[in-house]
Every structure is written in structure tokens, then in C-alpha cells.
Amino acid sequence: MMLAKLGRDPHEIVPVSAADDARVLRRIDIALLPLMLAVYFLHAIDKATLSYAAVFGLIDDTDLVGDQFSWLGSIVFLAQLVMQLPFALALVKLPIGKFTSIMVLGWGLTLTSMTWAHDFHRLMVARFFLGAFEASVGPSFVAITQMWWRRREQTLRVGSWYCMNGLTWVLGSLITYGLASIDSHMRPYQIIFIFFGVVTVFVATIMFFWMPDSPTEARFLNDDDKVIAINRLRSNHMGVMSREWRYDHFLEALGDPKTWLWFVMIFCVSVPSNGIGTFGVLIIKSIVSDPFKTMLFNVPVGIAHASTVAISSYASMKWKVKGPVISILCLPPLAGLSVLLLAPEDRTAVRLTGFFLLSTFTGITPLIYSWSAQNTAGDTKRKTVSALVFIGASAGNVLGPLLFTPEEAPRYSRGLKANCAFFSLVIVFAGITTAYLRRLNRSHSERRVALGKKAEVMDMSLETAEEVGEEEEEERRDDKAFSDATDLENEDFAFVY
């Protein structure tokens, strides 16, 4: 459509020079990443407000008993689990920028309303709607990342917005410390709810008017740069935005073994992720007791979280592998959980060290998101696989807090032992997934030979623009890069393991 608009051959393969690639990439990063980072920061902190509220008296003020606080942590993800498949259809059919910004507005208004929730039932209703609106953000951001960045670039971009989870521990804790210190007739957690709710509404308004629904609608690119923005993604072989829901691709996603391998992995890492996320502040509080010091102890933990995501994303991009990096990231949490289980309660420094070792688990989730996204093609299949991966994450996040209860403080032995088992399973399934993707690459190679093509092709989507050179134009002239073919249908698709 863009080529026809410019009076050029619609089937022309547009060569993209290294200079043009870098220039357009820089514009895309500057225009989209700050907004995505802000939204995901609020996405992370809006859920974390429950933990902050617990530190400042929410449990006692609302008369929560038994596992009710655990259910407040789980209900958000139960709502997300329910909403994923409807949102997958919406992401194919609806303009993604407008749809996502309306969802952000909904959760901002919901969080603001939590200020006046004074009992368990009202809190549960508010948390359910919070989760329902937030359910769109992860899949939307994965889809936006696939729409704008090459596969080499996607891991760092997914890692960058997922880094906001770590930044939440740093800035969120410092902001919460300041908000809780305000002298007011309102309780500290009420001030926290209303502040972050209003900020979220403000950011949603900006997003509605700025986030484009596709590269052809980007205000920050001229027509020639829009063509470059689209054509620089040719080597991804991931298809294009179709606005057509294809049931054959939906069924292929359900029957694809790698879909369920990622489902299991994300479930296994999400159980400890939300369990530690919900009860982590209380674990620290059981070690240092003072609530304000607890908030400050979150700062180095958050720095460790963000650093881990950044380093692991860069390593994965540099080494061009995901499975081995994921397995390595599971080892420090296994050591940290063992320390928390075995160290005496009076060994404060040792137990805090064990808790800090848990920080590397935050690097695993974005790698699984990008791993699944980079190995799925076809618009409907991409959205379906993304939805199923987020259903797995939601299911794990529902279970995670239920393995902990306040009555088990300060040991929380049941939850910590279960988390050890889940991290071990992640290592096992990362190895299985790597082996399966290598097998799929061999199968595609055999299909190419049968069709008279080269057995081995250079996966240019994982190379820099300088490394690709000018060989792409001729080599890709008869490929299916911009067809709506799935990864299994397209013999030129290269799987990343």
C-alpha cells in the first residue's frame, strides 16, 4: 500500500542501507520506547501497590484473615487468564494503539477507585477489574515489538520494557516511602492507590493520541521512512498485520508442541515470580521489621532485578541463543531459596543475601516472551501463541501467592520449597525446547533442498544491518517474508534456539 501510494511497484523489494536502517531504528526507539517503558512501569507498580499497602496496614485495616491477602494477589492474574483469548482476537481485529490505550485508562480508573475499598469483597472486585484491563498490556507490547523491530532487536526491546519490573522495586519503593510519609487524614496505602491511579490515567491519554496502530500510520515517519520501517523487517519472515482472523492458524497454534513447551516454562517461572513478588516485601519485613527500612531494602533488590534483565537480554542477543541463558538464570534463585530455607533466623545478613540471589529470576520471563515471539509467524498464530503464553503466566501467577500464607512467616517454607521445584523444571524444559527447535531447523533445511533451494540460509534477522550487506535483495526475492504464512508453513523461516 505504501509503495503504491508513492507511485512505485507494489512488489518492489526495497533495499535498506545500514545508514537508513540505523536512522529509522533510532526514530522508532525515540518515539515508542519511552511511552512503552512508562506504561509497563505503571503496569508493574499498579500490581505492586498491594504489597506496599500490606506493609502500611492494609491487612489489619480491612480485617483480612487466612488466605484472603493471598487471593488479592492471585485474583489479578485469574482475570488475566480469563481475558487472554478474547484479547487475542481483539488484537487481530482492532487498532492496537487505540485498544491498548483504552485498556490502560481502564486500569488507571480502577486503581484510583481502590482508594475507597474498605473490605475484602470490594478489594477483590477492584483487583479483578484491574487484572482484566491489565491483561492486554503484555500481549499488546509483544505484538507492537514484532511490528516494529527485527528479531535481533526484539530481545533488547522486550527486556527494556520488562526492566520496569525491577525499576518498580527502586523508584516504586522510594516514591511509596515519600507518599507514606505525607501527613493526611487518609491512610498511607490510600494515598498510594490514588496517586498511581491518576498518573496511569494521564499516561493513557498521551498513549491514545501518540501510539500508532501500524507503521503506515506513524506520525513520526515520512512516507519513505515508513517503507523502510516495513522493509527492514523482511528478514523476520513473520508475516504482516492482516486484520483477518484465520482459524487454520489458530488450530495450528494449538497443535504446535513448542506452544505448550513455552506455556509450561512460563507457568513454572511465574509461580515463584508472583509468589515472591507478592510476599517478597513481607519476607524482607520479617528480616528487618521496620516498614520504612523494608521499603528502602527494596532499592538494591530492584537494581539487581533491572541489571539482570538488561545483562541477560544483551547476552541472549549477542550469543543468539535463549535456552542456555534461561538455564543459567535459574541457578542463583535455587541457591537463594536454599539459603532462605536453611539459614537460622538470627543470621540476618545471610538471609538477606539469599533473598538478593532470587533477583535473577526476573531475567527469565522476558526471554521466554521474546523466545516464543521470535519463533512464531502468521498474524493469527502470533496473537494466539502470545495469548496462550500469557495464560500460562497468569495461571502461574494465580498459584504463586497461594503457596505462601502470612501465618507461615518468617520461613514460608512451603512456598520456598515449591519454588525450588519450579525453577528446576524450567531448566529441564529449556533444554527440551532447544532440542526441538534445532530439529525444526533441520526439517526446514530438508524442505528447502526438496524445493531446489539452498539447504542452509543465513538468518539475517539476527544480524546487524552491516553484517547483512547487500546479499539480502536477491536471496529473498522469492521468499514468503510478507505473506501471512506461519513458521511451520514457511520453509524459509529459521527458528531461534
Automatic annotation (TrEMBL):
<dbReference type="Pfam" id="PF07690">
    <property type="entry name" value="MFS_1"/>
</dbReference>
<feature type="compositionally biased region" description="Acidic residues">
    <location>
        <begin position="464"/>
        <end position="476"/>
    </location>
</feature>
<feature type="transmembrane region" description="Helical">
    <location>
        <begin position="124"/>
        <end position="149"/>
    </location>
</feature>
<dbReference type="InterPro" id="IPR036259">
    <property type="entry name" value="MFS_trans_sf"/>
</dbReference>
<feature type="transmembrane region" description="Helical">
    <location>
        <begin position="384"/>
        <end position="404"/>
    </location>
</feature>
<dbReference type="GO" id="GO:0022857">
    <property type="term" value="F:transmembrane transporter activity"/>
</dbReference>
<feature type="transmembrane region" description="Helical">
    <location>
        <begin position="416"/>
        <end position="437"/>
    </location>
</feature>
<comment type="similarity">
    <text>Belongs to the major facilitator superfamily. Allantoate permease family.</text>
</comment>
<feature type="transmembrane region" description="Helical">
    <location>
        <begin position="161"/>
        <end position="179"/>
    </location>
</feature>
<feature type="transmembrane region" description="Helical">
    <location>
        <begin position="32"/>
        <end position="59"/>
    </location>
</feature>
<keyword id="KW-0813">Transport</keyword>
<feature type="transmembrane region" description="Helical">
    <location>
        <begin position="324"/>
        <end position="343"/>
    </location>
</feature>
<feature type="transmembrane region" description="Helical">
    <location>
        <begin position="349"/>
        <end position="372"/>
    </location>
</feature>
<feature type="transmembrane region" description="Helical">
    <location>
        <begin position="99"/>
        <end position="118"/>
    </location>
</feature>
<protein>
    <submittedName>
        <fullName>Major facilitator superfamily domain-containing protein</fullName>
    </submittedName>
</protein>
<feature type="transmembrane region" description="Helical">
    <location>
        <begin position="296"/>
        <end position="317"/>
    </location>
</feature>
<feature type="transmembrane region" description="Helical">
    <location>
        <begin position="71"/>
        <end position="92"/>
    </location>
</feature>
<feature type="region of interest" description="Disordered">
    <location>
        <begin position="462"/>
        <end position="497"/>
    </location>
</feature>
<keyword id="KW-0812">Transmembrane</keyword>
<keyword id="KW-1133">Transmembrane helix</keyword>
<keyword id="KW-0472">Membrane</keyword>
<dbReference type="InterPro" id="IPR011701">
    <property type="entry name" value="MFS"/>
</dbReference>
<feature type="transmembrane region" description="Helical">
    <location>
        <begin position="260"/>
        <end position="284"/>
    </location>
</feature>
<dbReference type="GO" id="GO:0016020">
    <property type="term" value="C:membrane"/>
</dbReference>
<feature type="transmembrane region" description="Helical">
    <location>
        <begin position="191"/>
        <end position="211"/>
    </location>
</feature>
<feature type="compositionally biased region" description="Acidic residues">
    <location>
        <begin position="486"/>
        <end position="497"/>
    </location>
</feature>
